[in-house]
Amino acid sequence: MAPDSSRALIKDLLDSPEPKVGVLVKGWVRTRRDSKDFSFIELNDGSSLPSLQVLVDREAQGYEALKDLTTGAAVSVEGDLVESRGQGQKWELLAKTLTLVGPSGADYPLQKKRHTDEYLRGIAHLRPRTNKYGALLRLRSETAFAIHQFFRDQGFFYVQTPIITGSDAEGAGEMFQVTTVKGPDPDPTFKNDFFGRYAALTVSGQLEAELLALALDRVYVFGPAFRAENSNTARHAAEFWMVEPEAAFMDLAGDMDLAEAMIKSVVRFVLKNRATDLALFDSFVEPGLLKRLNVLAESSYPRVPYAEAIKILSGAAKKFEFAPVWGADLATEHERFLCEEEFKGPIIVYDYPKAIKSFYMRNNDDGQTVAAMDVLAPKVGELIGGSQREERLDLLQDRMAELSLNPEPYWWYLDSRRWGSVPHAGFGLGFERFLMTLTGIANIRDVIPFPRTPKSLEF
């Protein structure tokens, strides 16, 4: 059934330049206030943060249904949009017909009060009806659109890479195995399994995106990824979404430029198009959020070599939990210090030690570092990780041998270096991590509609 074309969305009514007659709206009751001969209903259909005030008096058809209108009930209202006599809203709907579409019991878990995030995680099927999570999901949708628009404008093709894979893109081994073999002890030879070989859920579409970039010049992946990391921190989830562009004939400098341009473009877009929703997060989640986002959108991103970053951290008066030493990865406390205290804004750190980076990253001439980069942002630390890829077959094979990686599952990846290999680069942006940046929400479970974490697979 197609959407009702005669129905008006509340967001459009609230922005209406003039009164309207014969308006039809449908949504869910947020609150109801009764007087002797009339009632006020706060109605929301999810299209906007503010609700529409509906005035229902005894002249309205269906007035008797008011006794069954509790919080959470779904209703249909037809009436006239008129100037509101009350404060706090420009318009209200004077109801002529009220229809109860779906009743809601008195035990409805969402009431007119602030619920904790922990409580709402337990009712994730209902939390999108709250102001905070409705705003989050609208912002999530708008951010995804802005990402697609940015890459389309840059000449990138949107591609889809496999969700089920036979290789580990990161070489970390934290993958979810996929099998159709029943029983506690699947066949280790996989001869009776569906694919006849080891299969797992992907942790990244990067390797396949490289192959497609070597044919289409520039591509991007925007899809789900999975990691079987038994981590219950506020920054990790078992299922998440990744944005992974890849461009042929692009070096590390171009990769850094692309990452900076993408962040700025998307942040500007949501600041312009979701101002009301962002204002909620600025008021109730992270005071000062809008100021931080404007810095992210408008400031330059200094390029800082890893060696210089270590030198700055080592000379800092601040005492860190983890000592900053050359050869070790930067901890979140290091990343935030660099952004928030040293540079007062986002930065890009590049040329990391190869010992702490993945096998596919291009070796620098010094033999000690690789052409890798991380975009670091205030409050969150690492936002993007990327690199120029190793396009030279012999050096790629040597690196895989150093890490004891079996080349057999990667035969197709190695083939791409045999026939028409070119310099190319790309990066990965964790979509949920980006949403945490945009909203100030501190826990990744609260920027995903239905989070998957260790020992949690509800809804």
Short key terms for the protein model shown above:
single chain, 5-stranded mixed barrel, 2 domains, OB fold (Dihydrolipoamide Acetyltransferase, E2P), 459 residues, 28% helix, BirA Bifunctional Protein, domain 2, elongated, 8-stranded mixed sheet
Topology (elements, then pairings):
Layout lengths: L9 H5 L5 E15 L3 E7 L7 E6 L16 E10 L7 E12 L14 H5 L9 H23 L3 E3 L4 E2 L34 E2 L4 H11 L1 E9 L12 E10 L3 H22 L1 H10 L4 H10 L4 E3 H9 L17 H11 L4 E7 L15 E9 L3 E8 L4 H10 L8 H5 L8 E7 H9 L20
Parallel strand pairs: 3-5, 6-9, 11-12
Antiparallel strand pairs: 1-2, 1-4, 2-3, 4-5, 7-8, 9-10, 10-15, 12-13, 13-14, 14-15
What does this molecule look like?
The chain is an alpha+beta fold and 459 residues long. It is built from twelve helices and 15 strands. It has helices spanning 10-14, 117-121, 131-153, 206-216, 252-273, 275-284, 289-298, 306-314, 332-342, 393-402, 411-415, 431-439; strands at residues 20-34, 38-44, 52-57, 74-83, 91-102, 157-159, 164-165, 200-201, 218-226, 239-248, 303-305, 347-353, 369-377, 381-388, 424-430. The chain is elongated.
